[in-house]
């Protein structure tokens, strides 16, 4: 986001009142801006160049304000003040007008055909009878620079030239000439230079040298002359000194040369609208004519107003408010978008001024309405839809593999996705044309020339950087490689790979082979030809001849393993044999849906859903549930539904974290869709309804939430009177009611019972600096660490060597309250005694 620096006192003077820093920060937030920094010119210079350079700088307070990148009308003090005044209803948005010159022909800019090879477009306008002060002049120059850096893309798309019209005479000619034929005195110079000499001169200029490459290699350079042959400018590099503007300038000729005509029009509109308020006739701009090589004449600036229509319902729905059409029109008018209802339904007509080229869609208008309404004033509501988020299957499989590969004794590495061409080709004994690599068009360094097509070079470079570590080195990485793929829109695709290497005095092929078997066991792929996996001999220049095998799963190749070729090992500056395995992970996902995974049994990431055929009908929902009695009460009553809604306020399911038969049973007990007032119950009911086609596969319930239906009443007549029956049977109905009430109370009490607290036993090794450290004081410091959920245990001193002893101390922690990182940070804070802290043992209780 561009940052605009304005002097606080000038800003408050223009706004007509004084704000505190907090008040102005709040005003900026309401207007969609951000007050980024409060500083001064002296403080900035002192910070960037040192105190000695800042001795004579100004102490005036500067506000650094972050402005949205597409709000070009807020890049200067004038536009910022105008926008805030309109937003606070202290000023009506001005109306900008294009006028003809008084008693004469408009200024004319003639474009020749030679410019087509460099910058073919140009626009122009005149600010007549303008009055500059030092502050206005500084703002005028600063706006040009802000536009150059923003929409003009560092002058590559548009370059702005401003000239004192009284020092030159029209018509003006915009043409292109050979560099040696252009000669003039540039801005702030005392003598004339040719264009070739200027290019050499400005190569060391910290400001202008960045723009030289735009035209440096062109056969001709663009240049603008007046009718007397005086050079106005050589865009996009420098203006001529003859037509420079000053505080005494009254008439300003503005020209913009460009490779993009649309952006040139926007830039010209911004320049003239922001500073036309200082003209004798405020907010009027004198037109200029531009004549193109084909004879076509255009009049600029356009200052075009356009009208758009949208509905109040659209704004209310998108923002999340309920405002009338008149109120929405008022909100938009506060954002300099003059609006009024059309009278046709809730339709609103919005007039977009030339200062708002950022408004290109109805959503942009809606966003301004939201800003004017105030984001903090929008009522927070519960979404009407309920969705269940799941981890991306490929990432989930990757995370599970990472845990088990680490448990197998391998250490994970993470390398850059970019590498050199040599890494993936020459060093591996391959040709770069065979790698299907994606090349970086303009790489900054030789280390980042292509996107990697294999993970192996990264791991080998990691081993080379850690050669002094104890052997063996066992590393793995699961990350993406990038391959060319013409079937994709971007011509490339990512592929998730798994790579592991074993580096030791012996090749250790059996270790890598064992890791492959373990990986296949985790993926639930059997060692068999056909549907399972198998390996067979293969030739690969990266591997030692006769020591390479290709991995097949389901008859398709997914990777290779083997002993690396000695030449490959030596090219990575390694001296010992190395075995490697690399294979594609994505084939193990298939084209199936995701299920929950656990580590309890060998798992497979996916399984196939048995979707019903079109001819099969879905199981019909029960028209009347067998019983509506649950532990929460009667589901046909308001009280029962309210109790269940409260139970589901912080739960997604009746028990656990997945749908089960308990959810299906309670769902069946609800006779009709619950009212919208019970939002939690309604959300749960809609979600469980989606499981109707697969209810049979839901796991069984662990608890009973639905009470069994009462037995049907007997139709016994007078002849069936039991003279010997107990009087208690007559109270069976009352007893059943009491029993149900007690069960409901018990279930409610049980649901509030606190969960078991997970605890762990940790044994810490606390190491001192040397043998002179006071170990008693060290232990005292460690035990002084107090946290909720932490209980210190026994401690002892263990010899390390050379008379140094370490403190070994145990503790019991509650997992949710105390973590090992927190403990280590607290203990290592005693820097005088503690050198480091390691976890020697960690056991769950």
UniProtKB/TrEMBL annotation:
It is found in: Cytoplasm. Residues 612-633, 706-735 are annotated as: Disordered. GO terms for cellular component: phenylalanine-tRNA ligase complex. Residues 303-380 form the B5 domain. Residues 716-733 have a biased composition (Acidic residues). Its EC number is 6.1.1.20. SMART domains: B3_4, B5, EF-1_beta_acid, EF1_GNE. Its cofactor is Mg(2+). GO terms for molecular function: ATP binding; magnesium ion binding; phenylalanine-tRNA ligase activity; RNA binding; translation elongation factor activity. Belongs to the phenylalanyl-tRNA synthetase beta subunit family. Type 2 subfamily. Belongs to the EF-1-beta/EF-1-delta family. EF-1 is composed of 4 subunits: alpha, beta (alpha subunit of the eEF1B subcomplex), delta (beta subunit of the eEF1B subcomplex), and gamma (gamma subunit of the eEF1B subcomplex). Interacts with elongation factor EEF1A1. This is Elongation factor 1-beta. It comes from Fundulus heteroclitus (Killifish).
